[in-house]
Amino acid sequence: MKLLSSRKPHYSPTPRKSSKFAPFIALALLLTIPLYTFPPSHKLLLPLLLERNNNSNLPCSSLPCNDGGGGGLTLRRRELRLGKGNYSRNRKVGRPKEYLTRVSTATHNEEPGIIRTKVLEDQKCDLFTGEWVPNPQGPYYTNATCDAIQDHQNCMKYGRPDTGFLKWRWKPDGCDLPIFDPHQFLELVQGKSLAFVGDSVARNQMQSLICLLSRVAYPEDLSAPTDQNKRYQYTEHDFNISMFWSPYLVKTGKLDPNEKRPFDLYLDEFDPHWTTKIALFDYLIISAGHWFFRPTYFYVNNRRMGCLYCPESNISHMTSVFSYRRAFRTAFRAINGAVNFKGVTFLRTFAPSHFEGGPWDKGGNCVRKRPFKRKETSLRDFSLEMYLIQLEELKIARRAGRRNGGKFRLFDATKPMLLRPDGHPSKYGNWPVANQTFANDCVHWCLPGPIDSWNDFLQELLKRENKR
Ligand SMILES: *[C@@H]1O[C@H](CO)[C@@H](O)[C@H](O)[C@H]1NC(C)=O
Ligand SMILES: *[C@@H]1O[C@H](CO)[C@@H](O)[C@H](O)[C@H]1NC(C)=O
Ligand SMILES: *[C@@H]1O[C@H](CO)[C@@H](O)[C@H](O)[C@H]1NC(C)=O
Ligand SMILES: *[C@@H]1O[C@H](CO)[C@@H](O)[C@H](O)[C@H]1NC(C)=O
Ligand SMILES: *[C@@H]1O[C@H](CO)[C@@H](O)[C@H](O)[C@H]1NC(C)=O
Ligand SMILES: *[C@@H]1O[C@H](CO)[C@@H](O)[C@H](O)[C@H]1NC(C)=O
Question: Whose CA is nearest to atom 14 of ligand 5?
Fold first, then answer.
């Protein structure tokens, strides 16, 4: 989180289309936040936060609106409206919610032409299309009742003054999404093990889950305090949670965030660190995102194919669209090939950041105090591109899974979270330090906060699994 501007990569990026991408060069430095380790604790059921109700809603006119963190990139401008049926220009009339149709852009290296993606599960109600509605009962824990909140997301501790952002719940259009019930959840997962695979946003969800469960039980931490990988055991409930730190999902060179040299990404090779353990789990939640904007060399077949923001001029400069698609394809291939894996894989899709008024390293911030309505924003540019890649790769994985029994499900965090510019730590992830500039964190989510709803989704998705 010590995002001093001196920590930016010291070489200037040379890619053809580089200038507009510059804000992304090290956005993911935000994601290298050190892990705060919390002591085991058994504090239960303490009173909820008192509401301090002073919402001051910023009108759109005072800030550039709709900059979902990917503004002004070189991709052809396209939007994904979240309204009923307004998925795209080429929407399929008649079954608008079930199809997502698009015309691929010139920047796509693969699969040109029209790609149609079926996004819905074979279920009546699409959980992920809806609105945020007021929920005066929230939140369901505080930093006083849960020790699993790591400092950088402990927004109340660092003086966030407004609490209105804690008072919303997600309402799907066609049904209700029940609020997380820790008793019910622990019953659902009895005898099961769950793994998160991803980066610090995955960890953010895991910590939310531990906090939501803390009203009933607190896990034993079986992991080394400094290890980014975590293992928690709920002995009484025979339930385990693991977190595999794998921000690129595939094999990488050493991931030292202070490293000046771009990372090596082996885009067609498994990250053995998690792929050798797949069969131990009943549920995998796979995610990845913001790290793909960092300087990297791309390897395929052990050969350097290109790079993103590397200093050399004799390498082909490519975009993260290339690495993102390949990384998911490889990760899903590992899962489909995992011997003895009988579990379910959830793809938790990309959660957009919400920098407004500038990029992350030029004073961009997220100061809104209430959610967007879906007509107020749209998914665009890089966020849209990454989301579509995920949907497409999920579809490909499912097709392969059909042959070997692999089960892949959509866990769509993108659509709900696009509407939550108010849920990020902003400057409330640390105390101000004299003479130091910190970037505002508009990537992670305050705890408690809107990311708690991801575990509402998780509970509902697991319930649906049991009914299949
Ligand atoms: C918000 O509430 C806090 C605490 O009640 C108060 O100190 C502050 O002045 C209020 N801010 C506004 C803008 O009303
Ligand atoms: C959907 O698109 C139509 C025109 O294409 C527009 O009139 C309507 O307002 C849009 N709805 C939403 C919710 O954005
Ligand atoms: C929790 O937040 C309050 C402000 O709401 C703060 O005073 C306190 O220090 C925080 N406690 C912990 C343990 O983070
Ligand atoms: C949870 O982890 C413990 C310790 O590794 C193991 O003994 C137990 O079988 C695991 N339980 C489940 C349900 O995977
Ligand atoms: C690229 O240039 C570097 C020196 O700048 C050289 O060491 C390297 O071999 C060159 N690579 C290729 C593929 O030409
Ligand atoms: C911060 O800057 C001020 C003025 O530039 C200087 O007097 C002070 O010593 C600096 N403090 C630290 C901790 O560097």
Answer: 314
Q: From the CA of 96, which ligand is nearest? A: 2
pTM of the model: 0.77
Residue 322, C-beta contacts closer than 8 angstroms, at least 6 positions apart: 109, 298, 306
In our burial notation (b when 16+ CB lie closer than 10 A, e otherwise), range 401-412 reads beeeebbbbbbb
- pLDDT, one tens digit per residue, over 423-452 is 999 999 989 888 888 889 999 999 999 999
Q: What is the dihedral of CA 309, 314, 318, 323, to 10 degrees?
A: -80
User: Any long-range contacts for 8-15 (C-beta under 8 Å, 24+ apart)?
Assistant: 8/361, 9/260, 9/295, 9/309, 10/260, 11/260, 11/311, 12/311, 13/295, 13/309, 14/310, 14/311, 14/312, 14/313, 14/317, 15/308, 15/309, 15/317
Active-site positions read 200, 441, 444
pLDDT for 368-415, tens place per residue? 999 999 999 999 888 899 999 999 999 999 999 998 889 999 999 999
Q: Where are the domains of the chain?
A: 13-35+69-467
Give the residue, out of 156, 163, 431, with the most ligand 3 atoms within 8 A of its beta carbon, to mutate for a pocket test: 156
Question: At 114, which helix (H) or strand (E)?
Answer: strand 114-118
* CA–CA dist 466, 459 (Å, integer): 11
Is any ligand 5 atom within 6 A of the Cβ of residue 312? yes
Query: Among 161, 164, 75, which Cα is nearest to 421's?
Result: 164
Task: Give the span between the Cα atoms of 304 and 132, in whole angstroms.
Answer: 45
Per CATH, which fold does 13-35+69-467 belong to?
A: Rossmann fold (3.40.50)
- The gap from C-alpha 332 to its chain's centroid, in whole angstroms, comes to 17
Listing DSSP states for 1-31 in one string gives ----GGGS-SSPP--TTHHHHGGGTTGGGGG
Q: Which atom of ligand 3 is nearest to the CA of 159?
A: 4
